[in-house]
Amino acid sequence: MDLRKYRAILFDLDGTLLDYAAAQEHAARRIISILEMEDSAAVLTKVMGFLEGRVMQDLEACKSSAIEPGSGDMRQAFQRAGLSVDPMEFIEVYFEGLEEHGRPLPGVTGLLRNLRDEFTVGVVTNGPGTVQRKRLQLAGLMEFLDLLVVSCEVEHAKPDPEIIRIAMKLAGSETFSTLFVGDSPGSDMGAANAAGVDFAFVQPLGDFSAPGPRVLELRRTGDLAGFLNGVG
């Protein structure tokens, strides 16, 4: 496969370009410290589980299904999770913690550096705009991007294909000339397939069992560089 068939290469951010697991753990430890929760492995596991669950993920992505932070429903969600803290403070500290952590995954910086002269390179990510922009800046990746589309800024979150269509419009590319690279079968693959663009599936653990069309399967995003000359 030769990447030069594409005009634009678009990337998911978390888990594809940046180490999201490490950022979440950093934020979780910050929550435990600032909210003076018990500093134990069990509490860290509980906080991490809540951060990775649908309540926080929908809120983080600004999905229409997200629960209002200050609502009774949110307080009940925290209670069900066994978290006896103020939801508003928890959420604020969480996003502040994410902002502090921007670590590129192995091979990503070199890949984007190599791609920028031949392609329109962009990021399409769910999340708050301020948070994602700060993390990209910390990672030193912003200079390699031609465009950045963030769900909370455009009011469309993956797997809604509209967020990819917005990015394609900015890139001046069509469905046949766009490649989307991501690690989530539901969010990323779902959005790419619904938008009609080719998808490269990144799975560090090598689990490619999720169904759905893809043109490439990669263990590392950085491995995409091997396809610049039609080989990989």
Folded structure, characterized:
The protein is an alpha/beta fold and 232 residues long. Helix content is 44%, strand content 12%. The chain has ten helices and six strands. The protein has a six-stranded parallel β-sheet with strand order 3-2-1-4-5-6. Strand 4, helix 10 (185-195) and strand 5 form a beta-alpha-beta unit. Helix 1 (20-34) crosses helix 2 and helix 5 packs parallel to helix 7. It is globular, with a radius of gyration of 18 Å. The model has no long low-confidence stretch (mean pLDDT 96).
Q: Which CATH class of the largest domain?
A: Alpha Beta
The proportion of residues in beta strands is: 5-15%
Radius of gyration: 18 Å
Number of helices: 10
Q: Largest beta sheet, briefly?
A: 6 strands, parallel
Count of extended strands: 6
Order of the strands making up the biggest sheet: 3-2-1-4-5-6
Number of domains: 2
Order of helices and strands: EHHHHHHEHEHHEHEE
Report the span from N to C terminus. Answer: 8 Å
CATH architecture of the largest domain: 3-Layer(aba) Sandwich
pLDDT averaged residue by residue: 96
Give me the secondary-structure category: alpha/beta
**Are there runs of 5+ residues with pLDDT below 50, and where?**
none
What general outline do the C-alpha atoms trace? globular
Percent of residues in helices:
40-55%
CATH topology of the largest domain: Rossmann fold
CATH superfamily descriptor of the largest domain: HAD superfamily/HAD-like
